[in-house]
Amino acid sequence: MTHEPFDTLAATYALGALDGDERAQFERHLAGGCDVCEETLRESAEALAALARAEPRAIPPPEVKDALLRRIAATTSPRLERPQPRRLVWAVATLAAMIVGAAFTGTFVASRYEGRLGQMAREAAALRARVQQDEAALREQIAVYQAAVDLLRDPTTRVVTLHGLGPSPEATGRVIWHPVSGGHVFVANLPAVPAGSAYELWTIGDGAPQPAGLFRVDASGRGTHRIAAVQGGKPVKVFAVTIEPEAGVPAPTGPMVLASK
Ligand SMILES: [Zn+2]
């Protein structure tokens, strides 16, 4: 098998948009050790970090904005599409240019035309706020994936499958678990919990189930949650999720919706 499909998967993965079988396939590939994909993910993390620091310091003159927009137009031209391994850096650079461009636009409109074009200024500000929100969410997601990828490099890390039970047979989940570092749970197809409730994760070893944190799912039924290591590094035999009051409980009381075998 050539490496080519993984270039595209790496780019999508780095932007937090890979799921299902493709994600599992890519994570397996990464767990097997791949310098090319690791480099791609590292470069993307750096690009996003640079993006986070790239707060425009002052109002740029119009020619700067024009040059920027010309560069974006050139970058997005299909004629200039570069070979696959550069694709991710290219995608991140385009995203960065768009975000910076949107911020510049907002600053211009607000400073020069606010009196006459108040409506446009408000729209630009709303766009900028939305872009910043999306960017923050993207960075958070990438940080979670990066942590999971780091864990997967360790051969003692296990990937445990969770199966849907009772009220949510369609639900699925994976726990990436390291006995000393703890891990992350990734769930999909879980319905939203009723108001006043939350999903609670449990680690079960030889004794009673231990609470391992509360989490919620988004509108598409997906969620992630960081799991702290078990005290004393005691082995975990089963991971389970129940529906509990939103403040959490010390021992499970509600229906079990996900569990490992
Ligand atoms: Zn690779």
Characterise the protein shown here:
An 8-stranded antiparallel beta sheet has the order 5-4-7-8-1-2-3-6. Helix content is 46%, strand content 20%. The relative contact order is 0.10. Strand 1 (158-164) and strand 2 (172-178) form a beta hairpin. It has 261 residues and is of the alpha+beta class. The protein has 2 domains: 4-152, no CATH class; 158-259, Immunoglobulin-like (Sandwich). Mean pLDDT is 80; it is low at 77-83. The chain contains 6 helices and 8 strands. Zinc ion is lined by residues 3, 6, 29, 34, 36-37.
Keywords summarizing the entry:
single chain; 261 residues; alpha+beta; Immunoglobulin-like; eight-stranded antiparallel sheet; 6 helices; 46% helix; binds zinc ion
Say how many strands there are. Answer: 8
The separation of the N and C termini measures 33 Å
Which percent range fits the helix content?
40-55%
| Beta fraction | 15-25%
**Integer count of domains:** 2
Which ligands, by name, code or SMILES, are bound? zinc ion
Q: How many distinct helices?
A: 6
Order of helices and strands: HHHHHHEEEEEEEE
Radius of gyration: 22 Å
Show unreliable segments.
77-83
Q: What composes the largest sheet?
A: 8 strands, antiparallel
Content-based structural category: alpha+beta
**Apparent shape:** globular
Taking strands numbered 1, 2, ... along the chain, how are they ordered across the largest sheet?
Answer: 5-4-7-8-1-2-3-6
Mean pLDDT: 80
